[in-house]
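Annex B. Sample input.
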Amino acid sequence: MKLIYQKMETHKIPLFKPWVSEWMARSVIFSILMTCLYSFAFYSNPATVIRFYGIQPGDVEYGAVVIYGSTVAFLALDFRIVKYFAPRRYLLTAIAINSICSLVCLYSGDWSVFIVCQFVQGITCALMSGIVLNLVFPRLHSTRARVIGYTILYAGIQISAPFYSIYSSMVLHYFDFNWLFYGSTILLLALTVIVLLTMNDSARFHKKIPLYQVDWIGYLLYVVFILTMGYILVYGRQLGWFSNNRILFLLLFVVLILSLFVIRQLTLKRPLINLVIFKEKNFIIGLVLLFTFYIFKGSTGLAYGYLEVILQTDPLQTVPIWITVICGTVISMFATSRFVLMGYNLMRIILLGFGIMALYYLSMLHFVSVKGETADLILPLFIYSVATGVLFVPIVAFTISAAPPKIAFNASLIGIFARFTGFTASLAFNNELQAFIRYAVRKKVNESVDEINVKLSGTLKGINQIYLHGGKDIYITKDTSGGYLNKLIKAQIFARATHDYYDWMFISVVCVMGGILIFPQIKNVILKLKRGSIPY
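Annex B, continued. Sample output.
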């Protein structure tokens, strides 16, 4: 009888052992979070991935979509699974699977195997982040504690990209790509030791709930929809969008899968995601803001492309920029959380965040040129990091607070899907917009660069003279100077296209700010964060 009673009360046993202090427990939780995000470090230097696996830039983008989409889809299932397994065993299982995937990638060197492992590691990322969320938020009872919890969680997520970019830049400067897998394995082994030392084996978050009426079919439909949609958005332009039969077939397939998923969720008693949440107007507005935020957030890829292509910046030289981004994100997020707690209107804070984002685009318009220095981008990217820090917590808090308490968890699941969709759509949107702008710029350049252009012939003669003075043969000089001129023209096209791109993004963010000001129903909102709500 005593044994039965002990089993029934395991959900009341503290997860951490008695000797573990509160600050040590928080450190362990944060280390779990940062470790589960390590798999995204593989995409911090796309050029290295392309060279190592012999793939195209679009393949790298789809790899990021696979691990992100796998995480998003499994989080919906994790809500039920975490109530069945003991957290420590659940966490150790995730770590073991993640380690196996890293070792398989280390010894295979095959891109297809890497993608499969990324899908599995996306699941383990969901498992580990689910543990983190269940460790943090149910213990936060006041609005103040929950806002601070949101800030710490999302600050960790936001800074993980620049943090691992610094790490991978240093590793890849001295070693090859495989050393990232070595690092992953070592980090996971260290986390295993920490978990074994600090956590109780029998502790639980909840009473053990059997895995009955779990919507496994709904999960399969959801993950297939996510990955197929990601494929269309990443490879659509490369394949010619609707002129390609494969894209047309996949588009019809996505509509079919989505229809089946929605019908299933509306008819099941215990759906994977409760779609009733879409009846809340403020929640839909929050999703639109999240999606829009991620579109703008994805525009920094061109800034780093400018560093690599025009300024020829070594990855190690970008470390000061990454550090600046980390500092700007942390400072702005904690400052914003203070304003949220002081009762400032959320929409005004969000409006301020988009205003700072507009300032970032203006600063990029000022600094982008063919003659620049890496240090020139420190200020613009600091402004960008401040903008993201100001926007993230208020948008998430607004979206979550719009949900009724009984289905608040579903708001979190759909919220992370909106973030994923914004991220994936930003890849397609940025690629399409950049291609359109570069075509327009290249057309103008071709119209002006011809044999009767006096400036062109003068420039070419000047380049010839430089090579001749350097001791080059006259025939070699003609070929070399021609190649150098083509390089100059390409740099000019890239710089001009980058400048025009930021023009478009500035206009877009101003339109978003205008939209927020126009709609009166979203000007005055009250922060209502429910106890026990877990924001993914």
